[in-house]
Amino acid sequence: MAKKSFNHQAAMVAGITGGVISGLVKLGWENILPPRTAARDQTNPPQQLLQQVGIPASVTHATYTYSGHELPVVSYMMHFGFSTTFAVAYSLWARKHPKAKAGSSALFGLGIFGAFHHMILPALGTIPRAKDQPAEEHISEAIGHVLWMWTADWVSATVYQRLTANKKSAK
Fold first, then answer.
1. 97, 107, 98: which is closest to 149 by C-alpha?
2. pLDDT digits over 86-95, tens only?
3. Residue 37, class by beta-carbon neighbours within 10 Å (0-12 exposed, 13-18 middle, 19+ buried)?
4. Which residues are registered as beta bridge partners of 69?
5. I need a labelling partner for 60 at 20 to 30 A (CA). Which of 48, 126, 152, 161 fits?
6. How far apart (Å, rounded) are the C-alpha atoms in residues 124 and 31?
7. How many CB atoms within 10 Å of residue 38?
8. Sheet strands (E) in the chain
């Protein structure tokens, strides 16, 4: 059953906040269990996808330096753009359809993993077919997507509640 009304602006702000914070969680997870081999990470999937649509490697491999480390600015922009886009979509969808939150968003995270890493990106030729990817990649990405969406859900729920609590108590 769909909820009749909710505060769309608060849901979007909550989703953006959840997307940024959960994006940081996923980056941290990927430092613990890297999803790709070093060779496959020379041009990571976000960089490869951008190159497939004609953006030159000189742009996709652009970096900034912090504390002596070269960091991939374009990859981070893609990473946080993806994270935030899907966190906002989930925040809006889950408030419109509360039953969508079954599994504390783990199922949504696994669905995004399956859609992108098993279907969309292999079909585009951005990454190898799922059967040609190492098991370590599937394990890291599946768990990482669950942690990512759990975090996005928890953060966005808290932010939404705080943004709307004053309006409820003022009535």
1. 107
2. 999 999 999 9
3. exposed
4. 66
5. 152
6. 26
7. 7
8. 63-66, 69-72
